[in-house]
Amino acid sequence: MTAINDGQLQQSVMDELLFEPSLDAGQIAVSVKGGIVTLAGSVANYPEKWAVETAVKRVRGVQGVAEELTVNFLRGTLHSDADIAGAARRTLEWSAVVPDEHIQIRVEKGWITLEGEVEWQIQRQRAHDLVANLLGVKGISNRITLRSQITSTDIHSKIEGAFKRSSELDAGRVHVEVAGGSVTLSGELPNWTEIGAAGLAAWNAAGVTAVDNQIRIGV
Questions:
Q1: H helix or E strand, kind and range, residue 28
Q2: Which one, of 31, 30, 25, 35, lies nearest residue 5 by Cα?
Q3: How much is the pTM?
Q4: Which of 96, 122, 147, 193 is the 20 to 30 Å CA partner of 212?
């Protein structure tokens, strides 16, 4: 595979940001050093901030992302912490997936903190995704924990089975370690898409309470 220098990678990242329809890249500065992309500037809302990082990780050659973006709301989109908390609670209450009665919400200066305990990672992630799209949100700390009643051996076999079934990654290049409900992934995969797929597959296994994705990018 042809090596990508920092200048080429910088241009590719900027092109990808301009290509992404869900964000305005005009206020975003991109710099690259040793394959690490640094993003500076401002975005209009939290979903746009999220979209920027996702778009950058799609670019081949990106080794890591340092995100230094700030959220500058457009005029008329500011809301009080009480308004945001109320909207977040109503949003979770209307979800068919999230057990809202087990989740507590705290908002301070536009930053939402979610706490509580659920059974599945999809419930934890869905809670984040639902409140992330509310107007006035500057960021989210997802402190919802997962409860596990599955053995480490069961978790290990379920994850390796999911890897072998996946068309999105090379299972032979990923090593899985399980301690209790905590999973550590290591090895090398060629891009962020496969690394993300491995992490998602691990999270989807019943009984997993934490995933430490240490997989590196390698040829």
A1: strand 28-33
A2: 35
A3: 0.64
A4: 96
